Amino acid sequence: MILGELTGSELAHRLSQGLRFRTGPFSLCLQSDYAGIGQQLRLLYPLAPLIEDHDRQLTDFAIQLQRPRNLRRWLRPQIIMRTDAETPFEPFQLDHALPLFEWSYNWCIATQAQQYLMLHSAVVEKDGLALILPALPGSGKSTLSAALMLRGWRLLTDEFGLLRPGDEASAFHPLPRPIPLKNESIEVIRNFSGAATLGPTYPKTRKGDVAHLMPTHDSQSRWHETAPAGWFLFPQYQAGSATQLDPLARGWTFMKISGNSFNYKLQGAQGFRAISRMVNNCPSYALHYSDLDDAVSRIDSLHSKVIQEHKHTPRQGSCSLKTRLKSH
Amino acid sequence: MPQNWQTHGRHGWLCEDWEEETFLFNPLSGHTHILNGAAVALLEILVRAPADIDSLTNKLLDHETGLDSEQFKALLARQLEQLFQMGLIKPVP
Q1: Which residue(s) pair with A173 in the sheet?
Q2: How far lies A71's CA from each of A33, A64, A91, A185, A291, in Å?
Q3: Which phi-psi region, left, alpha or beta, contains residue A131 (left: φ > 0; alpha: ψ -120 to 50)?
Q4: CB contact under 8 A, B18 and A255
Q5: How many CA within 13 A on the CB side of residue B61?
């Protein structure tokens, strides 16, 4: 059974007891006394598989979103997030429950899912190969990954590029969750595609105005299909600029990816090996753009070329010092 | 008597060469370093056997740099200090 099949009353009941569902590799139990969050989850996670009581399965994360028992339950009402007896965030206003849920879920993953090397990046896939868009400040990667998804790419993630560190195929694990669009990007994507399903706009959050774009049906339904790393794209939106794609140095790419990872240092040697493997085998490009349609078209063309080159033998890295080290 | 330097035993370094630099991961510290050619040249010698600055200068002095022996030795001394601070080499007691 999937989340979208629940009626309003079933959803409210499950939320009060603990609504358990799966997104990508993670299972979650969300308990809340605020029924409004249920409607928003049903809009944005309609294909999320439910976990039934008879499955007798523990969930990876447990989040409570509860209204306070003091005056703030009624006066300028708030909602509080708790997980594993911790309260990592300040209370949010009640009608910002969905953004709080999304950021809470992010917090749980970032602090607990250390079985993965987690890159701070969007990942999309087409024709079996993944394109990774690292989340550098001001890059506009959410807008670009949303546009790619709406033009037929499968969204694996907008936030967490998940890799098993020892995986020599460098396969990314999908985590198809709503894409949080901010400020001007909301209207840009609304105008970009009539197929965009957007949740309500939340004004004046900590990140400005935020609205969430539902992942496409294809992205949601193929949550179990990994995709090997193909190439890296570092986008930079520049108003009025022509679309330009330039190759990037491997060393620079390694620095940016490792520096932008949630847990590179924690992963130790296997993190170094995992990122090195990708840097050796995956080309890296900078994209400057202002026209979203043109950018998507250029990315499509380059992706076809990368696929052709990817079919050849993987490239091994080299190090002059390594040669010396082998003899000692 | 000049100080002898050596690398830490069983260090398990991992490294990759990209463009003009060497990226080195040191499992003992958990840090990743970016090394230039001069640093790598020093480590390539020290990983085989301890050496002092005089013998390192003799092995590595490159007259194309335009530096004389004393100037080159001063440069190596700074490089050795940096490698020591990174935890990649240590003085021989």
Answers
A1: A162
A2: 16, 19, 13, 36, 49
A3: beta
A4: no
A5: 15
The helix (run of H) or strand (run of E) holding residue A123 is strand A117-126
Asked if A321 is an interface residue toward chain B (Cβ–Cβ < 8 A), one would say yes
Report yes or no: B19 at the A interface, CB cutoff 8 Å: yes
Lowest mean pLDDT of A109-113, A286-290, B68-72, name the range.
B68-72
H-run or E-run covering A124: strand A117-126
Note whether B40 contacts A320, CB cutoff 8 Å: yes
Query: How far apart (Å, rounded) are the C-alpha atoms in residues A309 and A283?
Result: 10
* DSSP conformation class of A176: -
Number of A–B residue contacts, CB under 8 Å: 62
Q: pLDDT tens, A134-149?
A: 988 778 899 999 999 9
> Is this structure's pTM higher than 0.90?
yes
Tell which phi-psi region holds residue A4, choosing left (phi > 0), alpha (psi between -120 and 50) or beta: alpha
| pLDDT tens by residue, A210-248 | 999 999 999 999 999 999 999 999 999 988 999 999 999
Which three-class secondary structure state does DSSP give residue A190?
Answer: helix
Q: pLDDT tens for residues A53-73?
A: 767 678 999 999 999 999 888
Alpha carbons A105 and A83: distance in angstroms, whole number: 10
CB of B66 within 8 Å of a chain A CB? The answer is no
B16 and A CB contact within 8 Å: yes
Among A249, A268, A317, select the one facing B30 at the smallest CB separation.
Answer: A268
Question: SS3 for chain B, per residue?
Answer: CCCEEEECCCCCCEEEEECCEEEEEECCCCEEEEECHHHHHHHHHHCCCCEEHHHHHHHHCCHHHCCCHHHHHHHHHHHHHHHHHCCCEEECC
CB atoms under 10 Å from CB of A226, counted, come to 19
For residue range A14-35, list pLDDT tens digits in order.
999 999 999 999 999 999 999 8
Query: What is the value of ipTM here, to two decimals?
Result: 0.91
Please, which pLDDT band fits residue A254 given cuts at 50, 70 and 90? very high
**Nearest chain B Cα distance for residue A257, angstroms:** 13
d(CA B93, nearest CA chain A) in Å: 21
Along chain B (93 residues), what's the average pLDDT of each consecutive run of 10 residues? 82 91 94 93 92 91 77 91 94 87
* Single-letter code of the amino acid located at B4: N
How many Å apart are CA A147 and CA A295, to the nearest integer? 9
Cβ contact (<8 Å) for B15 and A280? no
